[in-house]
Amino acid sequence: MEMIKGKKIALIGGAGFIGHNLALKLKSLGADVHVIDGLSVNHLLSFSSTTKENPFRELCLRILNQRMDLLQRYQIPVHVQDARDYYQLSKLINQVIEPSVVVHLAAVAHADRSNKDPYSTFDHSLRTLENALDACRSTNVKHFIYFSSSMVYGHFPEGHVSEETLCNPLGIYGALKFAGEKMVIAYNQAFNVPYTIVRPSALYGERCVSRRVGQIFIENALKNSDITISGNGEDRLDFTYIDDLVSGIVNVIESDKAKGEIFNLTYGESRSINQMVNILKQFFPEIKVSYTPKDKLTPDRGTLSVEKARRLIGYRPSNPLDVGF
Predict the structure, then answer these.
(1) Which tens digits make up the pLDDT trace of 121-152?
(2) Do residues 325 and 279 make contact, with C-beta atoms less than 8 angstroms apart?
(3) CA nearest 151: which of 314, 14, 264?
(4) Which domains, ranges and CATH numbers included, belong to the chain?
(5) CA torsion 94→99→103→104, rounded to 10°?
């Protein structure tokens, strides 16, 4: 076990939904946490400058400012820096922060947007990752943690997967995440950069503005709009509450057994979209649901086994959808 207290940790993309929640948790455990973020992808700059119609723009900006206020209240330094700038990112990591752990979160974290804008997705996902890896290859970084995705699996054979399941991603988002995994492994092979790869799934929780499925449902319910489901609602996802994922990353940082491994970090039990809607109906009984044909780039998914993470690093998710949602 490695103590988190006093450990210097840099979160690239750390002002995002996952990142700021992780930063707050690590700080509470005594870590010296630094956030690196350009605040442009799905953050203050994009919501402030875009001309695209968004009925929840004001709410999203308030949520994003709340994230920044929390980071400031916890005295977590935020280095406003675009990770696509190799030289400035290298300077931050090698000369300013000098972390022992780097967690790479920077990405376009939305499959549909990725498929519609592959250039931007590559730029913000693979370009930032390559810069981060190269900045870490000759430093004192003892652990590089990469956030991949359950989308690398593509269609789930028989509705469930483990880390040993063959990856066959569908669409731009999953392909780039899988390419990112291969880059991380290659840097370990070539430069001995210690790594862990994590694969989350269907995240939800406080202060999210990423328009994930649960967030969209709640927004529509709040404004009395219909909820539209792609497919018949029986598609299953391994919905994961943010606190469970964050606890899993703490396990990864603490355990030397995590190095060189890939972990599914989810709740470990899939639920259907219709089941999520039924939970929502307990609070919004008047909501109406409509169904549309399923997108051809949406894989058939289900449960991700978390047994490997339980066995090796003591991961124990504790928030089923009924509680977390």
Answers:
(1) 888 889 999 999 999 998 889 999 999 999 99
(2) yes
(3) 264
(4) 8-205+240-268+300-319 (3.40.50.720)
(5) -10
